[in-house]
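Quick question: what would this complex look like in 3D?
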Amino acid sequence: MKRKYFATPYLAWMIVLIVAPMIIIAYYAFTGQADGAFTLDNIKAALDPIYMSVLWRSISLAVISTVICLVLGYPIAYILSRMKPSTAAILSMLFILPMWMNFLLRTYAWMTLLDTNGLINRLLGLVGIGPLRLMNTQGAVVVGMVYNYLPFMILPIYNILQKMPKANIEAAQDLGANSKQVFTRVVLPLSRPGVISGIIMVFVPCITTFAISRLLGGSQFMLYGDLIETQFLSVGQAYGGWNVGAALSCIMMVLVFICLGITNHFDKDSSGGTLI
Amino acid sequence: MKRIVSFVLLAAMICLAMAGCSGGNSEATMQLYVLNWGDYIDEEVLENFRTEHPEIDLHYTTMTSNEEMLIQLQSEDCIYDVCFPSDYTISKLINLDLLAEIDTSKLSNYENIDERFLNQPFDPDNTYSVPYAWGTVGILYNTTMVDEPVTSWDILWDEKYAGQIYMYDSVRDSMMVALELLGYSMNTTDPDEIAEAEALLVEQKPLVQAYGTDDLRDRMIAGSGAMAVTYSGDAIYAIMENPDLAYAVPEEGSNIWFDNVIITKSSQNVEAAYIFLDYLLDAEVAAANANYLCYSTPNAAAEEFIDPELLASDVFNVPQDVIDRCEGFIDLEEDEQLYHSAWTRIKAQ
Amino acid sequence: MKREHRFLKGLFIGIMLVFLYAPIIVMIVYSFNASRTMGNWGGFSTEWYGALFRDRDILAALEVTLSVAVISSIVATLLGTTAAIGIHSMKRRTRNVILTTTNLPVVNPDLVTGISLMFAFSILMVPQGYTRLLLAHITFNIPYVILSVMPKLRQTSDSLYEAALDLGAKPSYALRKVVLPQIAPGIVSGMILAFTLSVDDFVISFFCQQGAQNLSTYIYSLARRGINPKINALSAIMFVVVLALLLLVNVISSQNTEEAKAKRREKKRRRMAAAEA
């Protein structure tokens, strides 16, 4: 038996449960609810200015969260990568550990902290401030996103930095570069693939999340994920929710792939194996 | 390497063993899938049912709105046997032919039901549903934060309370508030009236702290808001927990609702479903539920087991004049689309 | 200057660890709170743990989560590893097409994957409940296994496999004895990753939860009702279990490296002894 036939079971699986479902989404996006005939109405409905404003809000919150993750995550990864391997191993594990807990539990943890009667407001109360409204704000949503996805930023950057040969840095130093130059000219460019995969791994779930905004934002700040979820699970098939929801999903997919295209453009020389 | 592999396999086996031990009910010969609202049954009732009926393996799931329930029940080969939808959703389900006819002769406790709650317009001969609970929608407010008497929905638009108002995250309930305030019917299908209500709710949005569902009760008890649109049962529960709270059904009128129990047409476990329904109709069980949920019960025989404090409450024992100014939701069929798109736009703002 | 630098770095790492762990620790502390509301400390109590273990729905959800995670990660590892071996030996162009498609569920938003699977399941008439959940988890796990096995395959040289064949090994034997040991680290890390992702997943499970709630979807339905001390207790248990597992893995792998080091030292000594003689 030829080795390439080893892939046959997976190929069948892939066609049925990866490729076909995408085609079905596209089919729903471009057909009417009542007659199943081709139409652009769903796409038009999905491009409604109010929905676009939701998209804009999602993108801006996701950008803010991604930037915060990068600003916090890069130094962490950098510091860890310069530590003794044994200390770095333990610390990096500590940074990944929360990722092993359930996503909903991590989000829920912030509900208990940010509540009007939660710990933060109690502590503020001791010094005579507040109670402040922390829950149900955009800030709470951003905190939830950063908290949930920060490890996804740290991990790929750390992996890259850790593998970077010390010789590169030493060579730069020998050639007279100061520490700032070493960082901007050597470390930063070499860690780019890690940064890019970190950005993708934070940004994509951020624009599409719906539980975070519902639990920490009090359903006040509808995100694109909420919008799509509402179309499927509140409006429903009978009122065309599936069709509009599929159209919204297509728009989101296109958007994500454009982002990926742009980042790939800046990332020609990476092998793409930095995901894990 | 081998060690890691064996470790992973060991961990996997432990997981499977744990999974095997927990939960699983080996005696069960029947399955029963129940879909209910969050916190809408006394947990002890469920526990007792499981002990008294070891032959039934009960799977219990919750949803937070009629719309979500409807979607679940509409899905192809729906797994649920029993559900607790409200009035207008029941008529929708009847129209969609998703409900099984209920054979009342199989329900020995059927006569416990107060006749006032039978033969409601959404299910004229109670062919498809059995009453479970009923109540009104109103404003639950904190008297330490709200000084004036609450008599009108327009207090929810009062800028004084900006950031302290909770609205209900459900299409018909929230639209009802705006429509009643405008003096229109909560069942209107006039696009202009719906648009006016939409504009009103958009105007209100900056004042709203959150759109919630089952969580509103606890938030009001904790004192984290001045007022919330809630169902009457949640209101009584909250008032009993926090005496600063009070409940009012505004003068403009409000919604009176009925949540009934139904059996789905696709149910594979009809026998178990009847056992469960009959169990819920038992006077003491119904009373236990009423005492726990604080929702008014349509079960007449249950009255003698109900907490006297509850019976004395105006919110539980709704006075006739309040009932008179309330209206029920009806199924709007195709026109409900208008409500959905208005609500999506409000939430998307 | 240098020392200040070190101090600042340590401080920053410390603050970030506090940010990551404070919420979890607060939850653990409050899981022992006798009072139901978060704000008040009503004394030490383990009643929520009792309540947690009496709650059959949580236990059933835990059962679903664990069994789906175990089965889906094993099946995904089998399918993914064989697929990777197959894909590796394909022509460059077909390989690229297949790998791009494989990447789809990885880069695609979970939400779209979840919805697309919901459509596919209803068209294929896959029965609601556990089956759907399991199939969905296998589907989103396979790509991660392939992605962690492929780089290892690229590192192995085909000549070793071919040499084994030339020496008379049957292809299946050569595969087992030559290729598999080389890619084993990739397989194991893929399987662990698949297991983690399966336990952590919420969005995709959310769209096939009918009749099969796992922990994520169950906690979501609880959390929408507000703060619940039972969830605190559950978090505490999850945290301790995860911590214990990770420590165990670390101890085992450090033991392995110790052993390897010892072996290497032993070899070196013998070689030196031989040279001296």
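Answer marked as accepted. Chain A is about 75% helix and 0% strand.
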